[in-house]
């Protein structure tokens, strides 16, 4: 296989893809080259900005330059000696309705010019389109994909099989399932540009994940037209390995200055929030006085630096296991991105399936949005599928989380230790201590050092949704276990009444005894006595 995965986090991966012009690393951004008007030369993109690959449009090349790229070869023609991807004209179909070229012609042309990665002539679905029209684009794309394998002649080119269907998710699924059956090396999600232009990142989440769920995970996926750095991390986290950006140049033409948190108009800026080699020694006011062409080059180059820097941060976040935190940070750049982040809740099991279970760093939880994190889904799944409490435990003693972790090393745990000592070995062996803790739910004492149960930090006070979620987990735990009694160390300051209410209800349903001891109303000494008495009472009830 030409694609090898080195590191993963969420569905994002750092991988190596072998092309005939050399190996490239993913996640990879292909700057779009317009051979007629190019503000930054392909050579400079590689030498100065470090781009390993570029993309250009075979349809435009064929129309404007005809045989010249064939005679010189694409790499010499563009002056770029690393991987070059070509698109086929599908975008022009989307904009102009049709193109004056057949698929066989454009496939042959891409083979003649020597693209490293090439695309069949798919039919983009677009945005404002009915289910019926969308179905037609999927059918026609599949028909062309099948025909393509009868006409292609070069096996050293990596061919892209696009997935269509637009916002019609059933069609995206069908398209992905069918195109997977064909031996393409790379897939692409077609025409999400309009979805992104309309800031429907939530729809984009569903489109990408529907495609991902139905495509072979070992084949890289390209997201066409995802050119803005503020959404790279979201797309990477959802499993997009390639992007292309024409935005760096298009924005520059309109005096728009990209940052990883959004876009500014040059004339609105008093300061450059960037220390790239372009911005470091000048001011927006000075750049405004430049000629239009100088300004365009300045902005294109700055935009490229920003894109490249964001990709590096994303890669480091993957290696650190901090991609979720990174996506969450970027999601605050725009409510539409945050809406998309909220959508991940609906896909948490799928994301969990492919995410690593241990990481070298601890996790940060800020609010209930993080409840969809793969680490939490993973823990819950394991708890409910395979965890069994130790044998001969009659009482479940539920204690609240502590600031210090692991919980059993916190000073609050001393009172439980003291009571256990007073009860003696035989009786305390019948008590199972577990913690209720956000965001995980119930954490049995014997697991509290397992990653990431004590390797995380959470913002306090907890929000309502997080408390309710823990209450739900507590109740689920009671229902699936077989204790005779539950004793809750109730902490109304941190947890209000929800945990207690959930315990009351679950114990009633289960038909087991329940007693709550309020840890905030009693002094430490009387609390110990009360806890000891409570435990003894229920332990002596034993027949
Ligand atoms: Zn800059």
List the helices and strands and how they pair.
Layout: E1 3-9, E2 12-19, E3 22-26, E4 28-33, H1 42-47, E5 53-57, H2 58-65, H3 68-72, H4 74-78, E6 83-87, H5 90-96, H6 103-113, E7 117-119, H7 131-151, E8 158-163, H8 169-180, E9 186-189, H9 193-197, H10 201-214, E10 221-223, H11 232-237, E11 242-245, H12 247-253, E12 256-259, E13 262-265, H13 284-288, H14 292-320, H15 323-331, H16 335-343, H17 348-354, E14 363-365, H18 374-386, E15 395-400, H19 413-428, E16 431-437, E17 441-444, E18 456-458, H20 464-480, E19 485-490, H21 492-495, H22 498-510, E20 513-518, H23 524-540
Parallel strand pairs: 4-5, 4-11, 5-6, 7-8, 8-9, 9-10, 10-11, 14-18, 15-16, 15-19, 19-20
Antiparallel strand pairs: 1-2, 2-3, 12-13, 16-17
Helix pairs in contact: 7-8, 8-10, 10-16, 12-14, 14-15, 15-16, 17-18, 19-23, 20-22
The chain binds zinc ion (ZN).
Zinc ion binds at residues 272, 274, 276, 278-279, 302, 305.
Which tags fit this structure?
single chain, 543 residues, alpha/beta, 5-stranded mixed beta sheet
Question: How would you describe this structure to a colleague?
Answer:
With 543 residues, the protein is of the alpha/beta class. The longest helix is centred in the middle third of the chain and has 29 residues, at 292-320. The chain is elongated and about 95 Å long. The relative contact order is 0.08. The mean pLDDT is 94. Residues 272, 274, 276, 278-279, 302, 305 line the site of zinc ion.
């Amino acid at each position: 296989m030409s694609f090898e995965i080195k590191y993963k986090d969420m569905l994002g991966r750092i991988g190596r893809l072998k092309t005939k012009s050399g190996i490239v690393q993913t996640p990879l951004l292909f700057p779009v080259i317009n051979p007629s008007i190019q503000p930054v030369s392909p050579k400079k993109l590689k030498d100065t900005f470090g781009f390993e690959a570029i993309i250009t449009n075979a349809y435009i090349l064929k129309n404007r330059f005809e045989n010249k790229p064939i005679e010189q070869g694409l790499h010499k023609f563009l002056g770029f000696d690393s991987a070059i991807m070509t698109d086929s004209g599908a975008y022009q179909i989307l904009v102009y309705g049709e193109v004056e070229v057949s698929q066989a012609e454009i496939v042959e042309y891409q083979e003649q010019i020597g693209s490293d990665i090439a695309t069949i002539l798919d039919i983009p679905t677009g945005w404002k389109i009915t289910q019926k029209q969308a179905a037609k684009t999927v059918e026609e794309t599949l028909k062309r994909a099948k025909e393509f394998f009868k006409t292609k002649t070069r096996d050293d080119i990596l061919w892209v099989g696009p997935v269509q269907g637009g916002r019609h998710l059933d069609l995206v699924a069908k398209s992905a399932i069918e195109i997977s059956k064909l031996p393409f090396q790379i897939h692409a999600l077609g025409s999400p540009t309009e979805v992104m232009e309309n800031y429907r990142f939530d729809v984009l989440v569903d489109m990408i994940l529907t495609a991902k769920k139905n495509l072979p995970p070992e084949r890289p996926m390209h997201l066409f037209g995802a050119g803005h750095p503020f959404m790279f991390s979201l797309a990477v986290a959802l499993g997009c390995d390639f992007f292309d950006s024409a935005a760096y140049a298009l924005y520059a033409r309109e005096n728009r200055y990209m940052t990883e948190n959004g876009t500014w108009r040059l004339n609105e800026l008093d300061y450059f929030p960037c220390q790239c080699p372009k911005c470091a020694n000048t001011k927006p006011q000075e750049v405004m006085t430049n000629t239009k062409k100088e300004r365009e080059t300045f902005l294109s180059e700055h935009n490229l630096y920003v894109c490249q820097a964001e990709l590096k941060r994303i890669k480091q976040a993957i290696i650190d296991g901090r991609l979720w935190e990174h996506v969450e940070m970027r999601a605050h750049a725009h409510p539409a991105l945050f809406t998309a982040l909220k959508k991940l809740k609906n896909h948490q099991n799928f994301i969990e399936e492919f995410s690593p279970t241990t990481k070298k760093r601890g996790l940060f939880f800020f609010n209930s949005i993080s409840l969809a994190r793969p680490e939490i889904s993973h823990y819950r799944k394991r708890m409910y599928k395979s965890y069994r409490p130790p044998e001969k435990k009659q009482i479940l003693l539920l204690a609240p989380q502590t600031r210090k972790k692991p919980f059993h090393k916190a000073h609050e745990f001393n009172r439980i230790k003291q009571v256990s000592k007073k009860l003696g070995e035989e009786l305390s062996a019948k008590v199972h201590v577990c913690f209720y803790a956000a965001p995980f739910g119930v954490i049995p004492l014997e697991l509290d050092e397992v990653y990431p149960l004590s390797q995380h930090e959470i913002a306090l006070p907890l929000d309502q949704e997080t408390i309710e979620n823990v209450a739900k987990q507590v109740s689920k735990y009671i229902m699936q276990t077989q204790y005779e009694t539950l004793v809750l160390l109730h902490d109304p300051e941190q947890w209000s009444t929800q945990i207690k209410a959930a315990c009351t209800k679950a114990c009633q349903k289960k038909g087991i005894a329940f007693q709550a001891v309020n840890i905030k109303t009693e002094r430490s000494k009387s609390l110990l006595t009360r806890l000891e008495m409570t435990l003894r009472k229920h332990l002596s009830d034993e027949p």
